[in-house]
Amino acid sequence: MNKKISSVLLILLLCLTTYSQLSFISVSNPSIIPSSPITNSNIKVATHVFLPAMIGTLTSTSFNVNYSNNLIILKNSYCDGSLFTPFNYRDTTSIGILPAGTWTLNFMAYYSSLPLSNCNYLDSVLKSITFTVSTSSSLKEVADNLINVNVYPNPSKGIFNINSTFTKNQNLIIIVTDLLGRELLVKNLNALQGKNNFKLDLSTFQEGVYFVNFQEDVTNFKTLKIIRD
Fold it and tell me: For residues 226 and 211, is the Cβ–Cβ distance under 8 A?
């Protein structure tokens, strides 16, 4: 009896293995939420993912925003597992606030076509989408009032200097975020007409890359990348 049970289990395992090897993930073209983002939008990327039987769930997500080339690379990794029925779901990743301009997003999905393979990603799917972040009317008014703003030294051990020049008095909000768009520090400042100098103390922050977002009310009018080393 034990030999019969073992034989049946072996046959089932071989069938499942063969089925899994013929099954692949299907990823639709990513879309932007909201569909027409502006400079103060919290932008997200959504895509439909179809997982056949024996393919597991999303295991890791990472993305990189290249502000110089207006390029976003989003990498999602999937791993085989014990999913015995197909599964279709919407996978969403938050990018955060982006400056105005035309952006290209490369969506890369990595997965393995073998069962229980300890996440050895053998295959990949690449999808691309181009979208435009527009400038709101209120943002344009603030931008017209701004002559320049810069942060130095960059990189820094933690103390950054912010120099800005405005043509009139300005309510200035500075928000520091991480790579995932999470707010880590918010400062409300009164910028006067002419040159302004402020200190930004990130000495308690861990080493890494952060973004300084300059806002008027809820409108983001400039974003700069800084490095805490």
Answer: yes
Q: Is this structure's pTM higher than 0.70?
A: no
The structure tokens 């229980």 sit at: 116
According to the per-residue pLDDT averaged within each range, which of 66-70, 140-144, 193-197 is highest?
193-197
By the 8 A CB rule, do 134 and 103 touch? no
Residue-wise pLDDT tens digits, 59-73: 667 777 777 788 888
What confidence tier does 87 reach under pLDDT thresholds 50, 70, 90? low
Annotate 8-32 with b (16+ C-beta within 10 A) or e (fewer).
Answer: eeeeeeeebeeebeebebebbebbb
Buried b (16+ CB within 10 A) or exposed e, 137-148: ebbeebeebbee
In angstroms, the CA 140 to CA 134 distance is 10
Residue 19: band (very low, low, confident or very high) from pLDDT cuts 50, 70, 90: very low
Residues 173, 189 contacting (CB under 8 angstroms):
yes
Look up the CATH superfamily of 137-228. Immunoglobulins (2.60.40.10)
Between CA 153 and CA 163 the distance in angstroms is 11
